[in-house]
What we know:
Number of helices: 8
Strand content: 15-25%
Number of strands: 17
Distance between the termini: 56 Å
Helix content: 25-40%
Low-confidence stretches: none
Amino acid sequence: MRVLFAGTPAVAVPSLERLLEAGFDVxxxxxxxxxxxGRRRVLTPSPVAARAAELGLPVIRANRIDDGxxxxxxxxxxxxxxxxxxxxLVPPAALRIPxxxxxxxxxxLLPAWRGAAPVQHSVIHGDELTGATTFLLEQGLDTxxxxxxxxxxxxxxxxxxxxxxxxAQSGAVLLVQTLAAVAAGKAVAVxxxxxxxLAPKLSLADGRVDWEQPxxxxxxxxxxxxxxxxxxxxxxxxxxxxxPVRLRxxxxxxxxxxxxxxxxxxxxxxxSCAVELGQVQxxxxxxxxxxxxxxxxxxxxxxxxx
Length: 306
């Protein structure tokens, strides 16, 4: 069965590799255009484009599927399209090209967390269980009928990056199983059932920590936005980036946002107990251990995050 693979970030690469290992004929790869990366804004291929080039696969680069991209997809003559975090909408003309449609691997248990950032929202909201779903793509936002699911426990220390790495691997297996069932004529898609929740793309503002919130909510927020868009707070009028924190239920005397360096760690007050900082990045500096940053404060006692 000829497959068009659509994907962009690193979490989509395992699916591409698994399809090839399983013997599928990947006719072409659709990914977003090269984008500037880093401080020097070097134009860089997407992780999927880079891997496709290494594998010798034809690559279609398009930030949106316009007439030109649609024509290129049609020229590949796919029987089915597999899509994993491509990052753009698939218009009706393109949806109609493969006889077996577009099968999307989505990193949630649909209809929970429909949208661009399902794993981040799952972590932020404290889900204990998440997973991945393969479904038939249609015009609605992640509304199509489901072929298969898998579940994954959310660990208390999980960042969205940690969880995505695991789901990228297990989800790739689910995608291959789904496409194999489609090829064998044994796949059955059933309508989604359950409570719908939405997971829109997160902005930089979503990473700002509100120290008035309880410590558990703060930890979930920080974990959910790590590594992207990143957690931060304000210190002396400048943005101060934060890595994951640890709950310190043995300390609750600090005011929200009040910082207390000490031998037991660098603590920050919240709306409940304190949290202990791990890695931090002051403005204009590299990420460092919180203890190293705190040593640079000298005798200052008025440190307060906003």
